[in-house]
Amino acid sequence: MSATPQKSVPPEDLITFIEELKRQWMSTIDALVDPLMMVQEDYTIYKANLALAKIAGIDIKQVTGRKCYQVFADRDSPCPNCKMQESSTTKKPQQYELNHVRGNQFFEVSSQPLLNSSGEVDGVVQVYRDRTEARKLREQLLQSEKLSSIGLLAGGIAHELNNPIGGVMIFAEMLLKQLSPGSQEFQDAEEIKTAAERCKNIITGLLDFARSNPTKKGKELDHVKVSDTIKEALKFAQMAIGAQNYHIEASWLDSEPLVAADRNKLIQVFLNLIQNAFHAMKDGGTLSLRNEIKQRESTSWLITEIQDSGDGIPKSLQGKIFDPFFTTKEPGEGTGLGLAIVYGILQDFGGKIDFESSPKSGSIFRVSLPVVNSPIKLKEDT
């Protein structure tokens, strides 16, 4: 019995079949939300998906033939920590982290070598997974744990120091009443009193930071109009700073919703932020205050912005500004607790704080608070 002859496929049908496979493959790649590119050993892109073109801000047709570091990171040389060459050399997958400066995003990059039928490397697949939000959440968790640990320590130290410092101040006052004004002894006693008052202010900051004074929670919270607390804080800040060289611009919502918070604590939050803004504008400048409503998932947030026209915060310091005791002020001018206290208070009310800053371009601090009746769980005291 003879074998059944195989039916040959017309060349035009084969070409159509291959083109369809190619189209389906590219459609699948373009459907990925993660930027993806295929790169040669010299960093030249020979294939990419739409997500990559979108983050690069160019047409997909302009991607191929260019260097990966030019398209993705807007650089003139390979990205720091790039593992593409290592993946090609070792023929093994590699992973590394990359900051996308242009979009202010953080990516986890996977490099996977592409091997041909002979086992040789034909190129490397680079996949970029956006980990910006995950990184922010991780940093917030670390900051919360840090604040909690240091808060317990600070509270204990503050209570131990409070009484002896109070005694020093009382005896300094008694000496001043007994000494002749203008004498060297009188000046020495005044120095003792001034130093003791400075210590007392630091202790007060430690106690606030450690939450020694109970914070209202749940049904005890006030329903607060945020712009009113800012106006109150602004009065105190102007009296303390003597803000005659500053121009203040304020823009509030016509129908501003209320937030659930301890009114006095919220004044403390904005007093710290406004004072910092004034300090950042040593020779005067413009302080801008404004708010808006934003919807995130099922929660409505009142976003309040405090913007200054000061020197800005150097990038090398931006990751430290919420750390307890970190300050760029001269000795005696600040304890470095202000922003750490702000961070902790806002957490108690289910709020958040973030910022943007560029050298010589000033800073914008954003306070986000859930409006009344928005479904969000407030932090409970422990």
Describe this structure in words.
The chain has 3 domains: 15-130, Beta-Lactamase, CATH 3.30.450; 133-213, Helix Hairpins (Orthogonal Bundle); 216-382, Histidine kinase-like ATPase, C-terminal domain (Heat Shock Protein 90, 2-Layer Sandwich), CATH 3.30.565. It is built from 9 helices and 12 strands. The protein is elongated and about 110 Å long. The model has no long low-confidence stretch (mean pLDDT 80). It is α+β, with helices and mostly antiparallel strands and 382 residues long.
Helix amount: 40-55%
Overall structural class, as computed from helix and strand content, comes to alpha+beta
Oligomeric composition of the shown chains: single chain
**CATH class category label of the largest domain:** Alpha Beta
Biggest β-sheet, characterized?
A: 5 strands, antiparallel
* Rg from Cα: 30 Å
